[in-house]
Amino acid sequence: MSWNKFVRRMSSLFTLLLLCLLAQSCSLGMPAEQKKSIEAMELLGKTLGQMPFKGPTQFLTCPLEGGWAIAFYPDADSGNKEIDKYYAFWIRDKSVYTVNREAMSFYPSLPQSPPEIGINRVVAALTEENGVILRPEP
Question: What is the model's pTM?
Answer without folding.
Answer: 0.74
